Amino acid sequence: MPFEGRQRAAALDRCWSIYLSLTRAFTLPEDFHIEFPNAAESVLFSGALHVTVPIGSDLTLSLREEYAFDRQRLAASRYSYNLIDATGNNVLRADNLPFHRTDYRRRLLSHPPHHLHDERDRVHSFSGNLDDFIARAKTILSSR
Amino acid sequence: MATRKTPQRMTKKAFVKMASNGTLSADRAIGTMVDELQRYERKYGMRSEVFYALIPGTPAEDQPDFLNWAICYRSYFRALQSKFPLKELSRYAI
């Protein structure tokens, strides 16, 4: 198993906080409440969480986090957050790949390597915090 | 008038119980990842092993499918290692 003992507890804590963030922000299908614990259990085998959930009639949120332990603390070593429309286009996406230092206006990223791509694939600063991504997704959802 | 049932948010206690009760088998988790890897392989006409040797670690990885493919590939290996002891897996190493 990738995670044992306290690491398992920390991984499940992270999954729980993601569940809370999602259920506070959106009205989610009933299936989600049944499927999410399976996705969290899969973290214990694979060291990564993958959740895909519709958040509106034409928007889907796809979240992936890959975990590692740094001095006993759980961290998302790699993540990919995607907001996808009905045609499969990425309306918004965020990740922590280390290939951007500036945004599309050539200003330094505020929290590198965290960054966000808009619908036109332009790079913006991003905190790396999932709640910030959810807040942006919520704004997009309410503007449709 | 019929009222719509609002899905109930589960409690943390219920969540931890459901997520750690062992209902999800490693086989099922691995099967889901294999399906996803095969979808990417068909889409890009490339074996996952080849993709992983070529793309991750380069700027080309900063594309949603490639980033998700790389994470899925690493997750698949970790899940395999949790199912089989590393020693047994190493017999199949080239």
Describe what is shown at a glance.
With 144 residues, chain A is an alpha+beta fold.
Please tag this protein with its features:
heterodimer, A: 144 residues, alpha+beta, B: 94 residues, mainly alpha
Low-pLDDT runs of chain A: none
> Any idea how many domains of chain A?
1
**Biggest sheet of chain A, strands in spatial order?**
1-2-3-4-5-6
Computed CA radius of gyration of chain B, to the nearest angstrom: 19 Å
Tell how many strands the DSSP assignment of chain B holds: 0
Structural class of chain A: alpha+beta
| DSSP helix fraction of chain B | 55-70%
Overall geometric form of chain A? globular
**Strand-residue fraction of chain A?**
25-35%
Tally of individual helices of chain B: 5
Straight-line distance between termini of chain B: 66 Å
If interface size is counted as residues with C-beta under 8 Å from the partner's C-beta, which chains form the largest one?
A-B, 39 and 37 residues
Q: Whole-number average pLDDT of chain A?
A: 94
Mean pLDDT of chain B: 85
Low-confidence stretches of chain B at least 5 residues in length (pLDDT < 50)? none
What is the tally of helical segments of chain A? 3
For the sheet with most strands of chain B, the description reads: none
Characterization of this structure:
The complex is a heterodimer of chains A (144) and B (94). Helices cover 35% and strands 31% of the residues of chain A. Chain A is an alpha+beta fold. Chain A has one domain (6-142). In chain A, α1 (6-25) runs parallel beside α3. The N and C termini of chain A lie far apart (43 Å). The model of chain A has no long low-confidence stretch (mean pLDDT 94). Chain B is mainly α. Chain B has a domain at 32-90. Chain B has 5 helices and no strands. Chain B has helices spanning 12-19, 26-44, 48-54, 64-83, 86-90. In chain B, α2 (26-44) packs antiparallel against α4 (64-83). The mean pLDDT of chain B is 85. At the A-B interface, α1, α2, β2, β3 and β4 of A face α1, α2 and α4 of B.
